[in-house]
Specification:
Length: 178
């Protein structure tokens, strides 16, 4: 399948919501437009405006996948150890995170997910970032297999404060490795 990856803006909101809503329906997770998913309805304020980047994978003008790169100051401490910051477990040694990685159920297993991960890792490495933090619902086994291929290591777990109180694995990708 040929697709291309580009930075998203607010004209992509409908396409982004379509993809992520389909995944939440697939897993019977709760959709919360004014809460946990509010960022998706104003990408420019929640990502671009905060120094972060939201990307989409697009095929024939249709959004088929999403991913975001958040940037922050290095979380100090021994790399890979967890630290509670503002009520959330976070991974020490990281200075960016992978967020909102979803591929529409009809567009899977054609390389879009790998392409999106590859893209954000390349962007982060291009900025000389140290390590990438990932938190992922424990039920997303397909994603964890994929993350492992990109060098992600499980470093802990937590319960997310979302409507489903989702259990998540915490993972870390060392960006200094070739
Ligand atoms: C995880 C997810 C993003 C992967 O997206 P994807 O587009 O299917 O990913 P890819 O196509 O790159 O890889 C998926 C599998 O297809 C295989 N594949 C890729 N291209 C292929 C091709 N042309 N032919 C056959 N197989 C292919 C990959 O090797 C991989 O195999 P695996 O199941 O053994 O790991 C997607 O399954 C998803 O959205 N899941 C639900 C949400 C989720 O888990 N999100 C993560 C949140 S942290």
């Amino acid at each position: 399948m040929s697709f291309h990856i580009r930075q998203a803006n607010n004209r992509d909101v409908e396409g982004v919501v379509n993809v992520i809503h389909a995944v939440f329906d697939e897993y019977s997770f709760t959709w919360e437009e004014d809460g946990y998913h509010a960022d998706l309805y104003d990408i420019e304020t929640h990502y671009t405006g905060c120094g972060d980047t939201f990307f989409v994978a697009e095929k024939d003008g249709v959004v088929i996948g999403t991913i975001a790169l958040e940037r922050f100051d290095l979380i100090p401490g021994a790399p890979g150890d967890l630290k509670v910051i503002e009520g959330y477990s976070r991974v020490q040694g990281c200075d960016c995170s992978l967020e909102r990685m979803y591929v529409h159920p009809d567009s899977r297993r054609f390389g879009a997910g790998s392409g999106l991960i590859n893209h954000v890792i390349a962007v982060a490495k291009g900025e000389n970032r140290s390590a990438m933090e990932l938190w992922s619902d424990k039920r997303f086994g397909d994603a964890h297999r994929l993350y492992g291929r990109f060098g992600a290591k499980v470093v802990g777990d937590r319960i997310l404060d979302d409507p489903d109180q989702s259990p998540e694995w915490g993972l870390m990708i060392d960006l200094r490795q070739p």
